[in-house]
């Protein structure tokens, strides 16, 4: 099993001091990675990551995840190499297909089909790898010793891409809700995640154990009564039973000790050692980070 890493998905603030405070808090609480989203309506990821590095000392920085349709691979390589140099090698780059149609419309990109979006992600990955391997053509020196690529998603084709190209695979643990036109996601249950992890491992073959496995936890609820919390959560997640909520790989309910035990069990079950939480759960999850640091 790989050693745990913990990340927090921070939405960049408009003001420097507020953003720096959030980044310093994440580092002080023991998080290993600041994950920055790529959505219209929030600050641009690479400038935010460079600013975060200026406010911190050790914490790594990742795009989580870039909408590949919005990025020219050559220019993306330039931005990634620039950010990596300005942060003393702390950058990771996460990519996905994008799932919010309104953002495609706003940016003037063709929504296309699920297949065409995955095809764009694949081309971006292949081209980006080539650019990062030969950075002199972009005005940089030697290729960075460490600039990991993360691929996030849930579908077969995306997981196959991660199996071939990624250093880190992020299991989204969610699917688009039936009939959703706004990118509304539904969480999958533990059995469905079992199948997704098996699918990835088979596709990756001998690479499977080398690729780090990530999950974005949608909700952390620190409580002495897991069962009651699961019943309450059903109001928001009516498509899952209380038992499924307790076992869902993207939800964590219980005391800090119970959540730590749950993550140890899930690492054994799924191989997921890199766990990201949402900004609203950063403080509540910090005792779990402390319990599992270095394990």
Shape descriptor = globular
**Quaternary form:** single chain
Beta content comes to: 15-25%
Low-confidence stretches: none
CATH superfamily heading: Luciferase-like domain
CATH fold call: TIM Barrel
Helix content: 40-55%
CATH architecture: Alpha-Beta Barrel
Give me the Rg, rounded: 19 Å
Question: What's the pLDDT, averaged over the residues?
Answer: 95
Summed up, the domain count is: 1
What distance separates the N and C termini?
9 Å
Count of distinct strands: 12
- Structural category: alpha/beta
H/E series: EHEHEHEHHEHEEEHEEHHEHEH
- In the CATH scheme, the class would be Alpha Beta
Main sheet characteristics: 8 strands, parallel, barrel
Number of helices: 11
Instruction: Report strand order across the widest sheet.
Output: 1-2-3-4-5-6-9-12
Q: Explain this structure to me?
A:
The protein has helices at residues 16-28, 45-55, 73-86, 101-107, 114-133, 156-165, 190-204, 226-233, 242-247, 256-270, 282-292; strands at 5-9, 33-36, 60-67, 91-96, 149-153, 168-171, 174-176, 185-187, 212-217, 219-222, 251-254, 272-278. The chain has 295 residues and is of the alpha/beta class. The chain has one domain (5-217, 270-292): Luciferase-like domain (TIM Barrel), CATH 3.20.20. An eight-stranded parallel beta barrel has the order 1-2-3-4-5-6-9-12, surrounded by eight helices. Strands 7-8 form a two-stranded antiparallel ribbon. Strands 10-11 form a two-stranded parallel sheet. Strand 2, helix 2 and strand 3 (60-67) form a beta-alpha-beta unit. Helix 2 (45-55) runs parallel beside helix 3 and helix 6 crosses helix 7. The protein is globular, with a radius of gyration of 19 Å. It starts with a strand and ends with a helix.
């Amino acid at each position: 099993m790989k050693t745990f890493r913990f990340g927090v998905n921070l939405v960049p603030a408009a003001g420097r001091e507020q953003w720096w405070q959030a980044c310093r808090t994440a580092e002080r609480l023991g998080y290993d990675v600041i994950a920055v989203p790529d959505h219209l309506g929030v600050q641009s990821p690479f400038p935010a990551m460079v600013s975060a590095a200026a406010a911190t000392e050790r914490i790594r920085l990742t795009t989580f995840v870039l909408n590949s349709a919005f990025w020219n691979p050559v220019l993306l390589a330039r931005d990634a190499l620039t950010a990596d140099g300005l942060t003393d090698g702390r950058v990771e780059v996460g990519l996905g297909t994008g799932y919010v149609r309104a953002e495609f419309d706003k940016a003037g990109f063709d929504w296309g089909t699920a297949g065409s979006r995955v095809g764009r992600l694949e081309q971006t990955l292949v081209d980006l790898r080539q650019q990062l391997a030969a950075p002199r053509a972009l005005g940089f020196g030697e290729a960075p010793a460490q600039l990991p690529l993360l691929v996030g998603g849930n579908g077969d084709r995306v997981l196959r891409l991660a199996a071939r190209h990624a250093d880190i695979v992020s299991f989204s643990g969610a699917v688009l809700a039936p009939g959703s036109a706004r990118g509304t996601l539904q969480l999958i249950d533990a059995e469905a995640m079992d199948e997704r992890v098996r699918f990835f491992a088979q596709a990756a073959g001998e690479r499977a154990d080398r690729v780090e496995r990530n999950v974005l936890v949608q909700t952390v609820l620190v409580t002495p009564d897991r069962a009651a919390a699961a019943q309450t959560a059903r109001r928001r997640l009516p498509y899952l039973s209380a038992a499924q909520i307790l076992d869902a790989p993207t939800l964590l309910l219980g005391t800090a000790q119970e959540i730590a035990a749950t993550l140890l069990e899930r690492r054994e079950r799924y191989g997921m050692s890199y766990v990201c939480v949402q900004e609203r759960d950063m403080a509540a999850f910090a005792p779990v980070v402390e319990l599992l640091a270095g394990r």
